[in-house]
Write a structure and sequence with these properties.
Largest sheet: 7 strands, mixed
CATH class of the largest domain: Alpha Beta
CATH superfamily of the largest domain: Type I PLP-dependent aspartate aminotransferase-like (Major domain)
Strand content: 15-25%
Number of helices: 14
Shape: globular
Helix content: 40-55%
Number of domains: 2
Number of strands: 15
Bound molecules: pyridoxal-5'-phosphate
Strand order of the largest sheet: 4-10-9-8-7-5-6
C-alpha cells in the first residue's frame, strides 16, 4: 500500500474512529495496532502484507476461518432476492424459518423455539427479559433476580453489562440494571464450594425472588476457565431444586468451539434457555439468538395475552440467516466439531510440552479449541507476577512480532494467554502455533530476573 494512503488511514482512524473495548490513549499515541486487509483460512494479512495466525478466531468467532466464498455467495444470493423484510407482527421469510428450525434441531434437549437477534449482548438481554416475562405470565412476577458469576462476560448492553462479572466493565457508567447478583466460579474453590455459594445466595435472597442462573459453560473473556466435570450437573440440580431457570451463554462455546456442538454437552446438561451468537455465522454477518425449552415456549403460547413487546429490527435478518445456514452446513459437512476436538488435544499436548520446558508456565488447559496458558512467577505455588511486570502483555507483543494474534487476560492480576483458533486448523498449523508460543514465552522469560 502507498505510504501516503497508509498515513491517511492512520490519521483518520485516530480522528474519527472510536474503537470498541480499546485504549483510546494507546490509539492516539500509536495509531491502530494493525490495519487488516485480507483473511484466508487461519490467517489475516495487514496492509503491509504481513501475515498473522489469527489464534483467537478474531473475537472467538471466525469458526470456519477467513475467506470462505460460500458464505459471500449465500449473502449475495439472499441479498439479490430479498435483502431485508421484517419479522415483526408475524411477518416471516424462508431463511429465518429454516434457521430457527435448524438451530432447534442442533440444540440439546427440548430447546425447540428460537428468538433471533444481531449478537451476543442482545441475546443475553433478550434471555433476561424472556425469563422475567415467563415468570410474570406464570403468576410469579417477583421472580426477577438474575444470578451470574464473577469473571463472567456476557456483553455490554445494559442487562449484559450488569450480568458481566468483571468489574472493569461496570466502571464506565455504573451498573445500570437492578436485580443482578454475582457468585463465585469454581476456578479456585472447586465444585462443592462454588455450588454452596450459589445455594447460599439463593437462600439469602429468597428463592421466590430468583428468575434465573446464568453461566458460560467455559468462561471465555474471564480467562478461559473450564469447570470441573461435576459443576454443571450440580448447577442443574440446584436450579431444579429451587425452580430457577438455567440460562447457558453459549456465545463463545456454541457451534463446535469446544469439540462438541455446544459446550454443555460435555456434561450432558440441558439448560432452559441457551444464548448463542459468534460461531453461528463465523462472524460473516452479525446474528445471535436465544433458544428456549418447550415448557417455556408452551407458557408463552398459552398465557401471552397480547404482543411480545420485544424485537430488534434485525431479528431474523434474511441475509444473516442465509449466511448462518451456510456456515452451519460447512461446520457439519467438514466435520469441524470433531476437528476442534482432535486439534484441541494436539494444542494441549503442545502447551504441556512448553510447560515442561519453561519455568514461568503455570496451568495450561484446553477444551476443544478453547485454551489458555497461565504465566506465573512460581508454577509450584502458583504465585503470580506483579501486574507492573506486564508479563502477559509482553508475550502477546512477542507473539505479534512473530505473526500470531492472541489475547491476554489480566483481570485480577492474572497473566493468561487465551487461544481460540479457527476450527479448520490443521495439525501442522497447531505445531507452528505452539512453536511460536514457545519462542515468544522464552524471549520474555529471558528478560525476567
Ligand atoms: N457472551 C459471551 C460469552 C461473550 O464472549 C460475548 C462476547 O465476547 C458476548 C456474550 C457478547 O456478544 P456481542 O459482543 O456479540 O454482543
Amino acid at each position: 500500500m502507498l505510504a501516503q494512503v497508509k498515513d491517511n488511514l492512520i490519521e483518520w482512524d485516530k480522528n474519527h474512529f472510536i474503537h470498541p473495548t480499546s485504549s483510546i490513549k494507546e490509539q492516539q499515541e500509536a495509531g491502530p495496532k494493525c490495519i487488516f486487509e485480507e483473511g484466508n483460512g487461519i490467517y489475516l494479512k495487514d496492509i503491509d502484507g504481513k501475515e498473522y495466525i489469527d489464534a483467537m478466531s478474531s473475537l472467538w468467532n471466525v469458526n470456519i476461518g477467513h475467506g470462505r466464498k460460500e458464505l459471500a455467495q449465500a449473502a449475495e444470493e439472499q441479498m439479490s432476492k430479498l435483502a431485508f423484510s421484517s419479522a415483526f407482527s408475524t411477518f416471516s421469510h424462508e431463511p429465518a424459518i429454516r434457521l430457527a428450525k435448524k438451530i432447534a434441531g442442533l440444540t440439546p434437549g427440548d430447546l425447540n423455539a428460537v428468538f433471533l437477534t444481531s449478537g451476543g449482548s442482545e441475546s443475553n438481554d433478550s434471555a433476561f427479559k424472556l425469563a422475567r416475562h415467563y415468570w410474570m405470565i406464570s403468576g410469579k412476577p417477583e421472580r426477577r433476580k438474575i444470578i451470574s458469576r464473577k469473571k463472567a462476560y456476557h456483553g455490554v448492553s445494559a442487562g449484559a453489562t450488569s450480568a458481566t462479572g468483571i468489574p472493569e466493565f461496570w466502571k464506565m457508567g455504573g451498573m445500570l440494571v437492578p436485580d443482578f447478583l454475582h457468585v463465585e466460579t469454581p476456578y479456585e474453590i472447586g465444585t462443592e464450594e462454588a455450588i454452596n455459594s450459589i445455594r447460599k445466595m439463593i437462600e439469602q435472597e429468597g428463592p421466590e425472588t430468583i428468575a434465573a442462573f446464568l453461566a458460560e459453560p467455559v468462561q471465555g473473556a474471564g480467562g478461559v476457565i473450564i469447570p470441573p466435570d461435576d459443576y454443571f450437573r450440580g448447577v442443574r440440580k440446584l436450579c431444579d431444586e429451587y425452580g430457577i431457570l438455567f440460562i447457558a451463554d453459549e456465545v463463545i462455546t456454541g457451534f463446535g468451539r469446544t469439540g462438541k456442538m455446544f459446550g454443555l454437552e460435555h456434561w450432558d446438561v440441558v439448560p432452559d434457555m441457551m444464548t448463542f451468537a459468534k460461531g453461528v455465522t463465523s462472524g460473516y454477518f452479525p446474528l445471535g439468538g436465544v433458544a428456549v425449552s418447550d415448557s417455556i415456549h408452551d407458557v408463552l403460547k398459552e398465557h401471552s395475552t397480547g404482543t411480545l413487546f420485544h424485537g430488534f429490527t434485525y431479528s431474523g435478518h434474511p441475509a444473516a440467516s442465509a449466511v448462518a445456514l451456510k456456515n452451519i452446513e460447512i461446520i457439519e459437512n467438514e466435520g469441524l466439531v470433531e476437528n476442534a476436538q482432535k486439534m484441541g488435544e494436539e494444542l494441549l499436548k503442545g502447551f504441556r510440552q512448553i510447560k515442561e520446558q519453561i519455568d514461568i508456565v503455570g496451568d495450561v488447559r484446553s477444551i476443544g479449541l478453547l485454551g489458555a496458558v497461565e504465566l506465573v512467577a512460581n508454577p509450584d505455588t502458583n504465585k503470580r507476577f506483579t501486574p507492573e511486570r506486564k508479563v502477559a502483555a509482553k508475550v502477546i507483543q512477542a507473539l505479534h512480532d512473530r505473526g500470531v494474534i492472541c489475547r491476554a487476560v489480566t483481570y485480577d492480576s492474572t497473566d493468561i494467554i487465551a487461544f481460540a483458533p479457527p476450527l479448520i486448523i490443521t495439525r501442522e498449523q497447531v505445531n507452528d502455533l505452539v512453536q511460536t508460543l514457545h519462542d515468544a514465552i522464552l524471549e520474555v522469560r529471558k528478560t525476567i530476573t
